[in-house]
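In practice, a research group might receive sequence data for several interacting partners and want a quick structural hypothesis before committing to experiments. The following worked case mirrors that situation: the sequences arrive first, and a predicted assembly follows.
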Amino acid sequence: MRRIVFVLSGVSRKERRIEEKTFKFAGLKREEIADSLRAFAAPLIKNGAKTEVYYLDGVDDETERSSLKEGEFFVLRRGEDAAFEELSEDLRRKDDGQTVFLTESAPCANRVFARLAYRFGVECVMNADGVIEENGEFYVVKKICGSNIDMKIPLGFAKVITVAPQPDKNVGIALVGGLGLKNGRNFERLKVLAGKIGANAWLTRAAALEFGGAEYIVGQSGRVIAPDICVILGASGASAFMYGVERSKKLVAVNNDSDAPIFKKADFGLLADAEVILTELEALWK
Amino acid sequence: MKIVVCFKVVPDFEQVLKSDWENFSSESDLNCAKRIINCFDETALELALRIKDDVEKDGGFAECTALTFAGELKNVFSSALFAAGFDRVELIKDEGTCAFNSLSAAKNLAGRIKEISPDLVLTGKQAGYADGGVVPFYIAERLKLRAIGEAFDAGFAEGVFFADIREPTGGIRRCRIDEPAVVSVGTGQIAGLRITTLKKRLATVGKNIDIFSGATACKTNSFSEIKFEYKENRRECKMLSEISEFTEILKGSIKR
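A structural hypothesis for the assembly, expressed as tokens:
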């Protein structure tokens, strides 16, 4: 019988209570990560796979240990290397050839899982999007080649998997600026406008490299968002960028190039200069 | 001091035709598309040169090697790297089809890196067809080196290397690197490799790539079982003729 091991990094409830006073967590809550992994593995669980959970923690909290249920394990994180050695040995003992190891893609988790895969002598499937069943066989799906191709890996070859984070669904409106915004000052204006209408402002990777603000990147190398409406100002619509916004319910593109690929990927298009439209929007929401 | 940067030349995916995507397989040859250095590797290459500049300002010397594992490396790339300031450009020849075999790529790169014995290894976050981002960590695990991921900046200050990474919770953490390490470079503030003058490029005539044989034969093995599917992500785009139509759509969303 197939077994799925969820490895949850993040912080313990005790650390979170301390840090919530001073920091805003962005998706590190273990319960949310566990839900995300369960959703990913749903076809396998429906097919009868059993699950186990490994918690990687930084605090030796007896309350946490004593609250563990059957099939849950606790790995003390004295430091990443020490935790990795303990986890690696435990998982190697548990591996019966039918076991699949899952975690959510994140900087620390990716490092640990890549090393784990190396020790198992298998490839690590990084940033997988889902599991599908075709003709009785299960495949792990991930986007490759700048998000142009769906790669389907037979489950037998996908043993160590990091799951692409779920898109940020908490935002109703997103305003995304591309190189058509022309400069960083216009991005600052976009951020102010976003604040007035209750939206979040983002950048394409090309624009972020030009204007600064790598933390605002949306796309394959940044955040994935799924707002109700995503307004894209002055971006051409490269595949790697579209990976970050294609889950939006409605896409509205503004570009002054009628041949821009974005007009084949959006619901509404406006042939106009992004900076001009930004000025119009600012006038409406003074 | 020795610095090695692992880089990869990849097709510019935006230039690939729809017909090539529709027929994509593990043995697809996308050489018809324009070739570029993978964007994250470009940032890593430029960071290495900036570190070299900092080391030399401090009175030291840093030898920078640009290393790739591929079937070939065109002169246009090697001359650009020499002109930019790299001391050596090395190619480990991939005789087989290794497009989806990150383990083999890592083993080959690690073999040469071990011979060079550098103080710092920089790589781009991800490259190649499969966008895996695993090769830097495989190299680190194979060579038992420290691995640092998602670095957006790296440098040399007060006698040691450092790498800056963004924490998921926000904020920046500076990692001191006082032992050999592999740093995987993500999206940084540097757009790409420095632009070089024609004079510098002409000065590279006669500089050759050092070519090494791949240590591990690479064949399409389990990857022949993998399926590929091209799904064109199209929506039916309605072109708006007036700005007022656009603002009405936006206002409607804000009200909700």
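Before designing any experiment, note the following. Chain A touches chain B through 78 residues (CB under 8 Å). Confidence is low (pLDDT under 50) at residues 12-28 of chain A.
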